[in-house]
Amino acid sequence: MPGSADEPQVLVFHGAEAPDGLTRAGIEAITEIGDAAPDGETFETEATDDPGAFTADNLQQYNAVVFLSAEGAVLSADQEAAFQGYIEDGGGFLGVHDASAAQPDSEWFTGLLGARAADGGPDGAQKAVVEVGDRTHPATESLPLEWNHTDVWANWEENPSGSVHTVARVREQSYDPGEGALGWDHPVSWCRDYEGGRSFYTGMGGTAESFGSENLRTHLRGALLWTTRLARADCQAAISANYQAERVTEPNQEDQLDQIGEPHGLAVADDGRVLYIGRGGGMPSSPVVTDWDDPQVGLGEGTLHVWDPESGEVTKAGSLDVFGNKGGGEELVKNEEGLLGITLDPDFAENGWLYLQWTPHEGIDREKHLAERRLSRFTFDLETNTLDTASEQEILSWPVQVHSCCHAGGGMDWDSEGNLYIATGDNNSSQFSDGYSGNNPEPSFEGTSFSDARRTAGNTNNLNGKILRIHPEDDGSYTVPAGNLFTGDEEGGGKTREEIYIMGVRNPSRIFVDKETDWLYAGWVGPDASEPSTTWGPAKYDTFAVMSEAGNQGWPYCMGNKQPYRDRNLPDPETPLDWYDCDNLKNESPNNDGLVDLPPARDNNIWYSPQGGGPDFPRDENGVPSYELDEQELKLPWLSGGGQAAMNGPVYRYDAESDSDVKWPEYWDGKWFVGDYSDSDPRNAVLLDPSNATSGGLPVHSESLQDIVPIGNDGVGNLMDWRFAPDGSLYVLDYGRGFFTADSKSALWRVTYQGGPPTPLPDDHIGPKGS
């Protein structure tokens, strides 16, 4: 292998006609980086503009070769062959800025670089924001999450994302990218293992002044540590081809639910078994009873299946008779109730307890169109993979209207203290408010409003449209931990529910609690308006938020970053009243039986509309947005909308002690997975700034997962749930291609990492132990 462990050497090659000031600044920076490094990480620097240095024998003395100010530099065929042999023998390469223009006719060198600069990019240096997405590579681990840097920014002929490991991007919204702009995904620094060696490229270093930046020097130092073999790093984690996505369940047999029900949630046991539920819809040919005079109206089969990774076999563990099989169709016919959520007891491996959120068919009120939502604990036989339906212990229940669809929620998870979080939908119709705030007080059935989310999500005395937090006890009861939103004693009692942790959510079907921080992550689906309205307020905003304490996320009064809707009320709900004041909310609905004065709405981290991600508008002196479409600013350009059904995912936590050969790499540690049911909308891993994450801070970086969690009809076409397993693999539920049924595309998928360990391998690593 080239280079020395005792006295590492770096060759800096630059063009003979390169700008003198730029070249000298770059050589000086690299020399000082090598000289000033801590013990065991120093290296000697030699600079040359002589391509004659590229012989097989001469290159063997160098641990890494840097191309600096090398635009147009041309090696002869023999010299390039010597350099190629050097890389194949395990040598390192660092390309800086216009190295992307060196060897312009060489296909091999293009592969070494990873991308070529495009013609017609922006002229001159500009200040821009660099997003640092890799928090583990020595080139980026100690840099700020967001870094203001002045440099010359190139566009690329082809975007290398997915074929290289991107460690940093430049945010195009922060400067003028000119012709050939790449959009939100604009890599600026990347690396990969290449033909036996190591290749790192950065588009920065385009001005002499830039080499004076301490951050750029830190960046170059880390890149050189890896390319010289003084440090190990993973340059494979963001390369799409290193992931294998496999469908692990077969299609159901005809008219049976032997493999999977209508997918609606999953949980993974410590031993790797995956338990997943079906809401209540059968196969497309299964009969559906919609006649309220029929005692079987809405009767569905809520299923529990188990997939065993050791055998690769599916077991149908049991089923429950649920209300919820009412198919599609017009309003007042379809229904989203059923078997909605699953979570395993923290001691599941010992006690076999699992918790289900469901709507029993038994006991529905067919006259008033009411039902009971229930949280129940069941015992699961760990030896036979069987649900003991007779073991049910009812933990908590509350009424729901089942006259008009929709928004049942269902997500559940635990924190590190054994508190259980339970997400419930707002139990409100999608109609009767023109797709804006669900606040129409007028429609009702047998005395129960079904189009006024102020009755539910905005009501302090109702458990719908909430995320509840309780502590289940061994005897089947529960206690309420300190710190929830209400005590139950406000105004003398009877106006609040102490189980409420978060209020003001619309349809939070998926939640996740990161046990390292006990932060709660949730996503929920927005209303149906395709555009903002200057009369009624924002368009449909699907939403994601991270929460560290109790609060009000705003629905149906405010959405996004506290963008208000217009109030409406009797006697004429079609007449717009005042804009809601997000900081001083009042529930003045005739359907409210809770407090009038509500906790203020909070900012959410992510929201997106059919126009794109993070819509925002100029605001007047009262803080009311203009809601003029042509004045809209999209703060999150990596998000697009359309079909829109937000599917919150997990925060990945890397287990260094695990010997799993399929676990996702440490690169993903701490990243939050957010996605959408529709594969036409993004699936991304995002990075938040811990200093403002729980106060509505926008993500500082996003990584596309579209090529890792495969999209399309033969991929995960309709994302329904996703969770990491103890072995670090990712399980994903595909809902299927219809609604309210299971079909041949309904499936459980597994995504594993196949990229191998960080490089250089331990025997080739010459730096200090642990680096």
Task: Give the topology, please.
Elements: E1 9-14, H1 20-35, E2 44-48, H2 56-59, E3 64-68, H3 77-88, E4 92-96, H4 107-113, E5 126-132, E6 146-151, E7 165-171, E8 187-194, E9 197-202, H5 214-227, E10 243-247, E11 263-268, E12 274-278, E13 299-308, E14 313-323, E15 339-344, H6 348-351, E16 353-358, E17 370-381, E18 386-401, E19 409-414, E20 420-424, E21 444-445, E22 448-449, E23 466-472, E24 478-479, E25 500-503, E26 510-514, E27 519-524, E28 542-547, E29 551-552, E30 558-559, E31 563-564, E32 606-609, E33 612-616, E34 633-636, E35 646-651, E36 672-676, E37 684-687, E38 701-704, E39 719-724, E40 730-734, E41 747-753
Parallel strand pairs: 1-2, 1-3, 3-4, 4-9, 25-29
Antiparallel strand pairs: 5-6, 5-7, 7-8, 8-9, 10-41, 11-12, 12-13, 13-14, 15-16, 16-17, 17-18, 19-20, 20-23, 21-22, 23-24, 23-25, 26-27, 27-28, 28-32, 30-31, 32-33, 33-34, 35-36, 36-37, 37-38, 39-40, 40-41
Helix pairs in contact: 1-5
